[in-house]
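hi! just following up on the protien thing from before. the input was this:
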Amino acid sequence: MNTRTVVSSLALVLILGPVAAVAQQYTVTDLGTLGDTDTYGEGLSANGEVTGYSFLTGDSGDQVPYPFLYSNGTMQNLGFEGQGYGINANGQVVGYASPATSDTVFAFIYGNGTTQYFAGSSSASAINASGQVTGQFGTSAFIYSNGTLQNLGTLGGLFSAGNGINANGQVAGSSEIPGNTFFHAFLYSNGSMQDLGTLGGGNSYGQAINASGAVTGGSDMPGNLTDHAFVYSNGVMKDLGTIGGNSSYGLGINASGQITGFASTADDEVNHAFVYSNGQMTDLNLLISSGAAALYTLTSGQAINDDGQILAEGYVDATGANAAFLLNPISSVPLPAAAWLLISGLGGLARLRKSRS
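and the predicted 3d structure came back as:
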């Protein structure tokens, strides 16, 4: 390509104006295990710490889950049987403990080397920065704050559970409705539990909530044969679609409205992790390097924080072992069209024309 071609192409691009950056890409870190094979990631904090559970072989040879705290490249065993579900920026972890001597599971809060157990059948799902916790106690969703447990009630049925809590103490979850045949997603705010409805089917489930009170989860579609991920905001439940299959489900949402979860692929036999951003749902396996894609298959996006980090689950292709992964967005600054053309030559111009068509 000669100088005249570059200059004339550059002039055309300057007329057309700037272009958007390419799709966000991610690095992938396998969080490892506590010493055995399978690890499951569940909660991601604002500063990139992770909780979940990893299996160890018990005395009788069975696989036993232990909650962990992953921080600064190290996975710490919290020291008791159970599962970790939520974590905040202070390194506090919540989940449930399952003592070998009891048939009952107990919600726990772990912080600074100390574990507090709830009295009674319960499980904790999420914790916000001020230490407020939500989950399920007995048959009801709850908020635990400053040593007091508040029963949130139901939408008229027998059972409810809180799954996500934001800094304002708003809770997203699911509750049976009158008749106890279906569950509906709810938003609990200012002392009231609001039914979020469905996308036309019988059931919906609220999973996560962001700082502005937007909720994501999954809802049955008409006919109740498939479900789709949704975002509920400003009184409207929006269908997020799929990545080619029939089903999807949202599990995490950040302050920017980015959502992660899982969706079936075109053959409907496999779930892949997705990220939803700027109105588009994208398979996360397409946004990682070819080297990582050759090693791992990402099956679910579990959580996303305000820095855009994503906690994903999947498996190691060579062994089939389940693994947890931390995906870090690769920083990219959108370039002016002129600079992009100088880097890319006429190939950049062709991509520009395609992007504007």
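Residues 1-21, 333-357 have pLDDT under 50 and may be disordered.
Residues 26 and 198 are 33 Å apart (CA to CA).
cheers
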